[in-house]
Structures are given as C-alpha cells and as structure tokens.
Amino acid sequence: MNPTYGAGVVGPRRSPAGDERQRDAERSRTALVDAAEVEFGDKGLAGARVEAIAARAGVNKQLISYYFGGKQGLYDAILERWYARERSFDGPGVTLPDLVLRYLEDGRSNVSMTRMFLRESLDGDPSQVAAAPDAEDLQGLRRRQLAGEIGPDLDPAFVLLFLQALVVARVLYPAEAKRLTGLEPDSQEFHDRLREQLARVVERLA
For the chain: N or C, fewer Cβ within 10 A? Predict the structure, then answer.
C-alpha cells in the first residue's frame, strides 16, 4: 500500500523495486508461453496469431517481440521448456516401461504440447526432413536394446514410432480410441487402461 501522510493524504507513488519488476517479467513470459502453447496446439505455427496469444495471456502483444523476438522465438521457448522437462524423464535405473509411462503422463498433463507436436509433424514436408539415424532418442533405444530391454530382431526406429503412436493415441485419433475400447478417451478409465496395456506391451518388446 502507498504510505499516507496525515488524514487522507496519499504519498508519492512508489516505483516497483527491481525484484518486483523481475517477477512481473517472469509472470508475463510464463503467461505468454502457456498461452502460445495452446494457440500453437490449436492452429499450428503458421496459423497462430500474436494478437490471439497476447489476448489469451492478458498482456500487450508487443511483449512477444520484447521477450522473444517474435512468434518463432516464442515457439522456440516452448520447445526449450519441453526439452528441459524431458531431460528429467530418463536416468539410471529407469526401465523402458517407466520411461514410456512418463511420456504418457506428461502428454496427458500437457495436451496442447502434444497437439503442437502433432501439428508440426502433419504440417511438415517429409522431403525437407533430413534422416537422423544418430538421433539421441534412437541412440537411447539402441542402448536399451543392447541391455536386453528390446529384442535383437526389432528395429529401434520402428519401435520408437510405435511407442510414439500409442502415447498420443487419444489425441491423434480419439474417435477410433472410443470405437475400439468403448471408453471416452479423456476419461480416467481410458487412461488407466492405456497405462496398464502400454506397460505390458513395452515389457513384451524384450
């Protein structure tokens, strides 16, 4: 509150301290990243509009350029946040079923991120994508294959595609998920059954 001097006299307005300005900036950045994740998930990078992102975040659209340098920079900030979270999934003692279920749980908690990745894949031109046989995720599966978690007759690239499809199944084809299981894809029952079956399928990969 502003200090008062005498009866009903309000003192000079205090400028925000440095730490308050920093907190405000962090809140604005976080709000923009959260809002952009939803907008990109709904419309993709090309279809998303900075005005809609700023309105969803409740801030001035000029802050997108100020903090991120534009829409692409905001998109990159979402990816950086995802990669930071993803790095915590794997580690010593984490089994392949545990790892896959961590991706499943994260995808359920961050549906907009899942939609964003799916839109990026659907909107992309495969002819413009370079092969990456040494990609980190594939290397990780190859190490697990050598450790006996994946059968030697299985191709890690196709195993990864298979697991990715299962993890995003309820978002990618919700109608088909309901047709085949009889369960609402957004329900807890569907999620619990998917967890159970996914863990069993992954265990059988060995």
Answer: N
